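can u do me a favor
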């Protein structure tokens, strides 16, 4: 990691993944800048220069990229519900702005955080590698716009010589998680096993996901020929989805899920709820959507041999150890 430049920008530096990357960079004594809409006292305490602005604002992105040599672009709008325009504005326009600013300021390398959902077609994905094609359609705005963003980065690599690598970490979790773990714990009493309950998935512990980003930057700077490539990132420990969900629930002091619903029933329920929520213009997220029904009932685990070979990636924190750390963090958080 000694070949990383000194001046580095992390978009979404106050977020779950962005914050983990920032902490590594600060430990490496790099000069770190964060672009995010909010102000984060934790980043301030670490000496991170915070620029408050929206990723969809080209002027804010231009300001953030001025004078930096490496950019980690983690800022995104996640989730499965909301207006398409909101997802497009952050995930596509935001990425276009980052790419343009990197070009304008001659940034040496860009590490773009994508998602395995960009190739999810609603069916099982078992041992899938990076040759998997984009599907013809998407059941949610998040994967649709993340796919467009990934294509934008790849196009700029091909057309303008942008030096960039795209990573697809799958189901990031761990201490400080503000998305996946809280959602599972908050819905403990309403969750149902969708389908036959035998589907297997990949996940990735937060420290491993952040480490993969640092490695990608290091290797890209050493080997410019890696530019334009995409890599799946995981803990390399495929696990039964519902076993993993129950382990997270246990870490949060919640009972396991035992009730079930068939995949067709969940899909129909999701379609009905989406129709009603759209009809009545409800802003809250439906308890089920078609995309969620497909995700919860199918296997999706990936071949990460390319990341191992090209980036030297190996997960350092096992799922078991990660769950132990998560349980300790949740207990400490709840005590406070």
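np, heres the sequence
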């Amino acid at each position: 990691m000694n070949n990383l430049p000194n001046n580095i920008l992390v978009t979404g530096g106050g977020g779950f993944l962005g914050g983990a990357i920032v902490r590594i960079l600060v430990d490496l004594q790099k000069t770190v800048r964060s672009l995010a809409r909010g102000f984060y006292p934790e980043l301030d305490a670490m000496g991170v220069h915070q620029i408050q602005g929206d990723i969809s604002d080209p002027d804010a992105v231009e300001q953030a990229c001025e004078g930096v040599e490496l950019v980690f672009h983690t800022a995104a709008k996640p989730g499965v519900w909301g207006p398409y325009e909101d997802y497009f504005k952050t995930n596509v326009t935001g990425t276009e702005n980052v790419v343009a600013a990197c070009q304008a300021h001659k940034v040496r390398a860009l590490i773009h955080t994508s998602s395995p959902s960009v190739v999810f077609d609603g069916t099982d994905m078992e041992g899938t590698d990076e040759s998997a094609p984009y599907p013809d359609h998407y059941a949610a705005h998040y994967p649709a716009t993340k796919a467009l963003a990934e294509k934008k980065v790849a196009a700029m690599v091909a057309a303008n010589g942008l030096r960039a690598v795209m990573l697809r970490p799958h189901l990031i979790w761990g201490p400080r998680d503000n998305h996946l773990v809280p959602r599972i714990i908050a819905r403990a009493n309403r969750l149902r096993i969708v389908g036959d309950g035998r589907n297997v998935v990949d996940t990735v512990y937060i420290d491993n996901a952040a480490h993969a980003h640092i490695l990608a930057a290091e290797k890209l700077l050493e080997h410019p020929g890696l530019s334009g490539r995409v890599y799946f990132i995981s803990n390399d420990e495929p696990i039964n989805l519902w076993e993993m969900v129950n382990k997270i629930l246990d870490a949060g002091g919640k009972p396991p899920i035992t009730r079930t619903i068939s995949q067709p029933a969940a899909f129909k329920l999701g379609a009905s709820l989406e129709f009603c929520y759209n009809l009545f213009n409800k802003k809250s997220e439906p308890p089920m959507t078609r995309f969620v029904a497909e995700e919860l009932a199918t296997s999706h685990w990936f071949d990460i041999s390319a990341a191992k070979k090209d980036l030297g990636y190996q997960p350092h924190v096992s799922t078991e150890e990660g769950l132990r750390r998560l349980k300790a963090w949740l207990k400490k958080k709840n005590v406070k």
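The mean pLDDT is 94. hope that helps!!
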